[in-house]
Write a structure and sequence with these properties.
Length: about 240
Amino acid sequence: MSTSLRFAPRADVCVAEVIGSLAGAEGAAAVLADARTRLMEPGGLVIPHRAVTLAAAVRLSDLLPDQPVAFAESALHYLRDILDWHGRPFDVRLRVENPPADALLSEGAPVEVLDFNGDLQTQQCTTTGLAITRPGLVDGVLTWLNLWCLPDDEPLDALRMKTNWATIYLPLFDSPMPVEPGDVLELTFAAALSDDRVHPDYQLQAVLHTADGRQHRGSLVSPHHGGAFRSHAIYRELFPAD
Ligand SMILES: C[S@@+](CC[C@H](N)C(=O)[O-])C[C@H]1O[C@@H](n2cnc3c(N)ncnc32)[C@H](O)[C@@H]1O
């Protein structure tokens, strides 16, 4: 692990591939902040340059047209291995393969920004207003990665390109809420270091402001480890009690 390495002289360049589908999920902020402080020359170059997690309002079933909301059969043995390894069941983050772009009910907005060569924050909290652009139903957000290897590159976009990174659906409301253009999903997205001081726990809070002046609240706690089980309706559906 780089965090327990010591060497001299210091490095001019660090190349790392610890970027998650939620950009910081694999601990890139803490790992690379430590590498910059202890192992690199001041002004040394980190590759990749920048990673951003974006989020947009969605309804899960719109992301899976003509398919039931269920785990893919090919994923089941990974799921069993993960839950066995952990020792007890928990609400795994939900990867959605090839979501249709027209299922998004808002533009994508940055909710987590990792500037590996700039002001790199190991913990952050962003509040953003996702303006609803078309009528529909919303029960959560879809998140995806934008990754710049070098500053002037076109970013890799995990929603629009075929990449190794997943788009992740994060539930917020137990029942889908009707929305129309002009409504705003106010999303607070926080990444705080877990007790291992490397991997972030994520916490989301949402307030849906609808045209009738009402506010509907939703939330999700998605920790790196030790998370809840059947915390949302979608997890009770995916993991029925019997
Ligand atoms: C996403 S994988 C990269 C895979 C690699 N690009 C490849 O093609 O095989 C991330 C790897 O980084 C390693 N890793 C994570 N944190 C690290 C750290 N602080 N120091 C060194 N390696 C680390 C993990 O064990 C894992 O093997």
